[in-house]
Batch of 4 targets.
Target 1
Amino acid sequence: MTDVASSDRAVVVPSVEPTPGMLLRRRIFGHAGFVIGATVLGIIVLMALLAPLISPADPYDQDLSNKLIPPIWSDSAKATWEHPLGTDLLGRDYMSRLFHGAQISLLIGFAAMLISGVIGTTLGVLAGYFGGRVDMVVNFIITTRLSMPVVLVALAVVSLVGSSLTMVIWVLGLLIWDRFAVVMRSATQQVRNLDFVTSAQAVGCSTGRILFSEIMPNIANSLIVIATIEMAHAILLEAALSFLGLGVQPPEPSWGLMIAEAKGMMFFDGWLIAIPGAALFALVLAINLLGDGIRDVTAPENRN
Amino acid sequence: MLVYAVKRLGVAVLVALTVSILSFSMIYLSGDPAIALAGEGSSQEDIENVRRVYGFDRPIIVQYGDWLWSALQGDLGHSNYLKSDVASVIFERLPTTMLLGACALAFALVLSIPLGVLAAIRPNSLIDRIALTVAVIGQAMPSFWFALTLILWFSITWRLLPITGTDSWLNFIMPSIALGYYVTPAVMRLTRAGMLEVLSADYIRTARANGLRPSSVLFKHALRNAIIPVVSLAAVQFGFMLGGSIVIETIFAINGLGFLAWESIQRADLPMMQAIVLVLSVFYILLTFFADMLNAFLDPRIRVS
């Protein structure tokens, strides 16, 4: 697909000066990580969005007479196309749970990333732009946050306040903003003293305007990259929390929870943990590859 | 150096104080701690009794001061569940977690530093690509799933390693790998980047021009300088690993601090939870402080600015 497109272009436009858009497209499709990451992430997002339509069964529907049916590729005679990925301990269709679990992972990952992104970017940009005392205070807040163990604090807080989807999102969002702050701070420091910022200050632009229309567009690249890293981080943390029983609560089909529920059966039915684990792995890998791809494709030094 | 050290120490103490306030305030997260302790459906009189006995009727600032003062003297309070004092339980469990963290860090360093060096010697070679793949895959694997997969292979399929407990060094192999692999990508990338930078420096060219053996240039001159940032990264990651050991210790039933934390959370044992958060945070603060000092000692540019 990609080869055909690029060879077509080579035939059609050998003499015309390529536009920036074309160059960008060429860089994107020439970057294997970007293409793979975007494709896999796209498939998982589609899985999540279309879950109610494409699921073979209700993900909550228990059927104890049909429990632990192996997936279709196993040799067992019990395997059936009615349940392509088999059924779990309570006879719930595993494929439907996998599709609906994608919703939870993506929702928590995205929402927690947004919250932490707002907190971290605000802190980082303010510290980087103003420097001095502001920088000192922000640095102090970052150091304090880093010294508290994330998983432990998240578990403790969720157990004290009570676990629900919203609570997991807020706890993670309030905990994982540190990388945003650190990277946005140094990115802002690099941009702050460039000529266009100085001239904006000289013509009397308000601080807010400088931050939003001069600084932000120039640190957006690294912001997007950190956003992908933190989304992946949040998804992994949610899975770990749910695995330990303090994240998403049953009967919701979180992938981490599915692994926890299957733990007792893993010696006999390894696929029960292999399937949601592989899904988690694929999702996080795709997001990371896409993030690396965005970094490489948008980096100025890779433009020519 | 002294001025730098004193400044850094001041910040460390302030951070530790802030962390202590945060861990103390965990008590009030679930609402009234007296009601939580007395249990649901207990009489007003019982609740009042609990409040008086545990001192929840005093002003919060007094409670905090009292808690902090005792903590400074090594008294972290009494467990609600174990009927023994928190400090002795924690320090009984701490060595196991330290050992696990050290093994995991050793595994991570032994794997990632050689890979990083090899990748830097031949950029874009097959080894570089393999190292990059290992890094990308390592970052995407959920640690608990990786741990379960290790158990499935090494304990169930091949019957090589014991699953749970801490009886022999064999018990520590899988937990160390499961805990340590997550750190390898970061260490490897930093080693590779550091080596690439150092290898193109003038003094390396000079060393080579003077006819030093390639291995001597590589290890005595290049790696020594490239490894400096890795030291502080390793210290930071060691701190993160102690915090992350909660997942791994729970899976492998290793009787360390992480497992204790998980048990305490299950039992709603608040004094224990507070103390573990405090101890791990203070340990991390100390670790980063010493890493900074070591860095300043190795690299004069840091302590001057």
Note: Residues 1-8 of chain A have pLDDT under 50 and may be disordered.
Target 2
Amino acid sequence: MDSFLAALDSASGPLLHGFGLTLGISAAAVLLGSLIGVAVGLMLTYGGRIASLPFRGFVDIVRGTPVLVLILASFYMPAGLGLSPGPVEAGILALTIFCSSHVGETLRGALNAIPPGQTDAARAIGLTFPKMILYVLMPQALRQIAPNFVNTAVEIVKASSLLSAIGVGELLLTTQEIIGRTFQTMEFYALAGALYLVINLTISAGGGWIERRVHTQ
Amino acid sequence: MDYTLNFGVVFRNIDDLLSGLLLGLEMGLAGLLIGSLIGILAAFAAVYGGRPARIVVAAYVGLIRNVPILVLALFAFFALPGIGIRFNNVVTFAAVLAIYAGAYLTESFRAAILVIPKGIIEAAQSIGLTRTGTAIWVIVPIAVRNALPSVGNNFISLFKDTSIAAVIAVPELTFEARKINNESFRVIEVWIVASLMYVATCALIAAGLRRLEAMFPKF
């Protein structure tokens, strides 16, 4: 235990940096992915048969592909086009794609579940299509997908650990480097697990808090 | 940018990719079966057990669902040998997958048990079945049928999670794809093929599950 505390003391700087990178990458992917996901969800629902087709293909392919493959593909494929994204950019790209397809699909489900009377009523009072989306449909749909969205955020944080495979110095890769130096395998993997647990339980608790507030209104 | 698509290398190595796919399916299936057993037992403990059992199950589910499966796999593969628990990488990953699936399936089976109408359980007891008999002959079959759609979805995500075994050098589809990527630099083709193989397999599994669900009408 003493040797673990000593090792932890000397490793706290890199660990904190890795922890921060995990949080930063996950937050960036969730934010960007949600924005794109909203657009994807709207296109899937209101795009019409032709325009929604590429979005349908995008969502189905991404949801049928393992996240690790998305990550490796984002890292290696751009080289064929003459681009060379760094591991962090490739990682954010992969997780953003993953997040947007999940948000898009859940949003589509939620929008479809809104009773048609809502659309009729919005049209009857003369709202234009964008205003109807913004003031009538989105608020209801977003409330619907809140629990699912929290799950997606947790999945993104978990998936960010896979970025260690392409050399992103996030929490897990930092942990592996520390283990390579200290040989305290069990202690530091357990610590990494505990840190992921803390992040995800915080997200779930925060999500629950927001849900309760939204539902009481 | 003079990149011309050439699938030749990828298709010459299609045997490796296919055997990797098969290994992934096998690990996924093993994980699903053992995970279902864990899930059913844990769900029974959560529904019919006392407070301590409920707390243990909730801790198991909460812990496993909030920790990345890669951390669990690395812990099992690199840390557990330190205390004498040592298996090869395929067995280790299948075991991790089972424990991981068990946590998700506990929730599925718990929900499936809770929606069984009380009258059915009372009927089972009134014809003289013991508590164990009721559990095995009445509750489990109905719960398994109720949970079938959710178990199926779990199988699809488990199969996708088998790609993570590549990190501990299990020669499954992602591992083989990365090998081709590194040896041939056909960086675009190999990932298109690998991704489509996953997508097609997931679609086939989903179609098979729909037929299975149709074969056993919902209770």
Note: The radius of gyration of chain A is 21 Å.
Target 3
Amino acid sequence: MTPLELIIAIVAAFLSMCMFSTLYGKSSPLYALAEESYIGFATGLTVVVNVLYIYRTGILGIKAGNWVLILGIILGIMVLFRVHPKYDYIARLPIAIALGAQFGLALRTTIFTSFLDQIRATIVPLFSGDAQTILYRWTIALCVIFMLTFFLYTIELKGPLKWSATIGEYMMYIAFGAIFAQTFMGRLGLFVGTMQYLATPPWKKPILVASMVIVLALLIALDKTGLLERWTPEE
Amino acid sequence: MTEERSLARMLAEIDRRIIYLLLFIVVTLPILRPVAMPLAVSPDTKQYYKVLDALGPDDIVLFVLDTEFSGYMEIQSGVLASARMIIERGAKMAIACCHPEATGIPPMMFSYLGDVMEKYDYEYGEDYVVLGYIFPNEAAVASSAQDFHSIAREDWQGRPITGTFLDKIHTWEDWSLIAIFTTGIVSDAFIRHYGLRGAPMVVNCIGVMIPTQKPYVDTGIYDALLPSMRGGAELEKLINAPGPGLAAMDCFTFGHYLVIIFIIIANIGYFGYVRRVKR
């Protein structure tokens, strides 16, 4: 462990715990400190990395003889006019071009990836493969039919159609449950990963525990003395 | 009866800070003191393993870090285990980032995998190149699929990439595998401009993305999907290289048990108190 690593570990653990102070249920200056620090750091990093990106792809490209990139640089400069109230209309042109290009690039292929290929993947042989595959395919096929009947709006749902729609509705509840569970797992994963980063290698563990105790003690002390709200900067 | 109702009321009105605190404790304790609970390997992970296991020294992998730093925390086990597999099989690896914060990940990766890289004599320039932040948006991904060197001329430290194994890469067809580690920044663009053309792709995504990414395995766009940190842990188990994923599984297990308990408690509170009050 070098002194620099130690400082990084202390700052990371303390600021992370300050971020978690939001769970205390009240606004706190500790949370504001961590939040503003993160915004400042992320903005600085984004600016530096993007300037380097412009240099590597734009400037180097022009130097390599790709003159059309000059147009991109000019359009990029035009975006900066957005901060000037009088000339902000100039920024609309490059933004419109960027949006148009983005839509053009995405729409051309989205119809295949998100629509046609998905339909094709649903229409599969229902009686080939092992038992697990057959079960899996039947489940998908039946769920698609049941759920589609739930979304039939132009006819009255009676008899078998109503049954199918009802089953489709319950299938959706099951799907929502599965999505919620996966969302919870994902959010827990973010938390666990962060805590692991703060606790690995083992010499970081006392720093993490100390940060937890200090932040919690500070929160309670500030709350009891009425300083919690007074010291929290306004939004 | 009154006592029953008061218990139900207490359960219905638990202070959410108690829930947060309990979850915090239950998830943090196994990190400080691991329990090593058993873990089964899912078919998804086995499929992912097979794809990476098939790589050889002649293969070139585009290793895409499509994540912010916070998201990386969830998929780092998959990133590290996948990189380890690629190194052990001698395949070449070009690491590209899709978010400014991801530029901090490669140094951490290689610091963690230092022993493996030394063992397999995995050298910068010869076996791997860190390209840095080269995929900020769909246009960059689309350009790279048609002419890779139009978006990447230097590595992240400004050294020219000519003379490296990347000389063999011109279009999407030249990659042996596109491995995406994603929180969903531009992964859809890779599907549209690489996957749809037929480039072999695998993905390791965060938990909330699994329902949206899984259909792409069924359609054949992805060769395999490694689901979240759990998938990373399973891959660590398969390659016999315990890492952050396996260590995190205790936290997941206890965290999930606690949530199940809270769901039961909340339902007792709802049926025992809230519903009666509403009536």
Note: Chain A touches chain B through 55 residues (CB under 8 Å).
Target 4
Amino acid sequence: MKFGTSQTGVGRSVERVEDGRLLTGRGRYTDDIRLPGMLHAVTLRSPYGHARIRRIDTSAAAAMPGVVAIYTHADVADYGPVPCMVPLSGPIQTPRLLLAKDVVRFVGDGVAFVVAETREQARAAADAIEVDYEELPAVASIAAATAPGAPKVWPEAPSNVLFTWEAGDAAAADAAIAAAAHRVSLRIVQNRVAPTSMEVRAAVAQWEEGQGILHVGSQGVAGMRALLAGMVLKCPPESLRIVTGDVGGGFGMKTFIYPEYALVLHAARALGRPVKWAGDRSDAFQTDTHGRAMESDATLALDADGRILGLKVETWSDLGAYQAQFGPAIQTFAGGRILGGVYRIPAIHNRVHGVVTNTAPVDAYRGAGRPEATYIIERLMDAAAHRLGLGTDEIRRRNLLTPDELPHANGLGLTFDVGNFPAVLEKALANADWAGAPARRAEAARRGRLHGRGLCYYVEIAGGGSAEEFADVRVGSDGVVEVAVGTQSNGQGHETVYAQVTAERLGIPLEQVRIVQGDTARLDQGHGTGGSRSMAWGGSACLEAADALVARGIALAKADLGDEVDYAEGLFRARNSNASLSLAELAARHPGGLDGRSRYAPEQPRPTFPNGCHVAEVEIDPETGVVEVTRYSCVDDFGTIINPLLLQGQIHGGVAQGLGQALLENVVYDEAAQLLTGSFMDYGLPRADDMPPAIAFDSLPTPSPTNPLGAKGCGEAGTIGAMPAIMNAIIDALGGTQLEMPATPEKIWRLAQAQRLPQAAE
Amino acid sequence: MDDLAQSVLVQWRVNGVLHELDVLPGQSLMDVLRDALRLTGTHMGCMTGHCGACTVMIDGRIAKSCIAQAATLPRAEIRTIEGLMGPDGRLSPVQQAFWDEAGFQCGYCAPGMLFSAIELLSETPDPTDAEIDSALAGSLCRCTGYQSLRRAVRAAARALRETP
């Protein structure tokens, strides 16, 4: 189809439909829901990283004012555990029960669920529950968990290693490394971070006529219902309705089922009243899934000219205390196959060990494995350039795959389809004034500041686990075309971009289209939002549903008008007369009958490969160790761009999350597995003044052949590009001294004290 | 627990409407706004005053309502995000600028960002980028990387300067 023909269609920076309510305080987030007779729940959590529960005494708490019920494990023992959908650990199971039975395994593990008339009463009662814990030895890090004789998180896994996953050819990689002119090895640590949506998780449950209704911030209601009904509550999916209103950010973390979602449903049914659980920031830091958390030994082999001969990586991935919903997949299927990026690598091998520790479960966080994989290869590329005396641009130039080498099988099970990586690199270097950086370095040196520049060429495997997506279109007698989609906006602006796509396809004004999401009563199929998949598959589903609507409308109009009918711009016109029917008129004649439904499912589902080049420049004050990102730009290939304004918002937010991980963010547990970063006082989230003056974005698209829109997905790219670009710039400023994230002032100050920084002033 | 039961009568004009309310010591202004007055546009983000999602205006100054004790405000003029529109129901110039520039994504941080912009621009009609950052730095946003928020504040400044 031809795009870009309408003022509000594909490629136009249409303003957001969502903002009318969000700007005026009329958004409806889960905690905004207040139902008549609603009770309030609080989870009592383990204060220990690892402990045996000897006894729980709820009698004093139960007698407190307003308390309606207190649940412990025995009350919910018939339900299934929070599911892990990635069976990499074989027979070793790590079931996370809704409430801990006799052992708690991380700080925040749920022990009791208290329901009272008010939240304050529930909290006071939770404080009055007496739990007799026997503290057990804990392991809070990969190093501690894999040390000889380490305490066991699970007796079933004596080594604390649940699985080892491999891809590629180990012998070939070893041989390439052994024979290479140059070998560069790095130990790379990727810090544990907290997704930290501004809206904390919450859930409200009520039962009506035998159906449980769960209001919850999710990244897709259909998937959550299937798992919650099928694996946890063990009820038919039809007995649950899941409703997601406005969501205050998710970043992967809100994809998953958390114990409270089942517990509010249980309590609401048992008590015959609606029940709300609304977490606080402490709940969030303790129990939202964390991200990254891994250590890798990585070796890159190169010939004398800096051409890559082989790559070998061994990673220890911290899974937390329980294998989360997709946790084991993140460094394996999701990220482990993209290792090596879009470079020409003749021999490659990746080995990943899944390690359990007494920490919060780790799962998908913006990029989910792709930022981690990219970070490894991009750090290696810079270290190799440094070793060989090559420019960091030149080493990439020599190794990037060219368009005539595509499609290219990467040796780890992926085949890159389209792209023009060298052109994107050159455009990014030009836009960033890469050549002008030495002059800026000299100028910074005159001010006593260390200057560095960093590059990252990333490729993402996008599209999520499934290319299937659903859309359901209905036209009301007012002519409004309502499209229900199986993905779920968490702030990205899907109500706007899907409307753009649909309105253009139907040739009608944007205002005539209304996008709805997040209610299984309206659409109970769909794979949700994650893995930068929504536009490619959800957008394609909107197109196909619009086509189905037109086909249905033509059939109806044909009968009504007694003539062959054509559709254009909202009108069904008879071929042999002046008769016509608008969408509204036709819908009024057939109440509830003018509709269309699509299941977008390509015969051979393939992922998309967004890619791009990020360039960062930093200045470091050696006196204080403070890093300032002074320039930032990127050139990306997202295929077809639907709404440039909203797309740039995705890049900017993604870059901020990458910058946060590189400079500020770090979840810290002490040796006893106590969480030390449980609030915004201890966990550094980027603020406005942490960001570079501008993030310059440019696009050099090669449309994806996998979907009719040609879209590749843009949700995670910013984060993937930012971590390596910024860290490479910092390491460049430090004269090649390797440094792990986050690059805090303290770490750099210590390097300065140890005389390990280059002299800034000439 | 005894003194907790001692409720205090407060008189507030909230978004122009007078309310007499019994509030409890220890109860935050945020909770009263959200629970008693159902003004849920004021959001809970941290309860420690770090994120700004609960920002309101008390007697003309912005404040984080999660750490403002309701009972310490016997009489107050309070404005919440619901009260930013003009009497004609139109968006204020600052809101319109945030819409025009796609300032927000999830919108949860809107109270902090909008009120910070309003206060900044009331005192500094033509702010520098550093002044904008400084004003926004009292609030956290996880979605936008602050780029669109900065752009929106600049646009709002222009709009306000052009509107008499």
Note: Chain B touches chain A through 54 residues (CB under 8 Å).
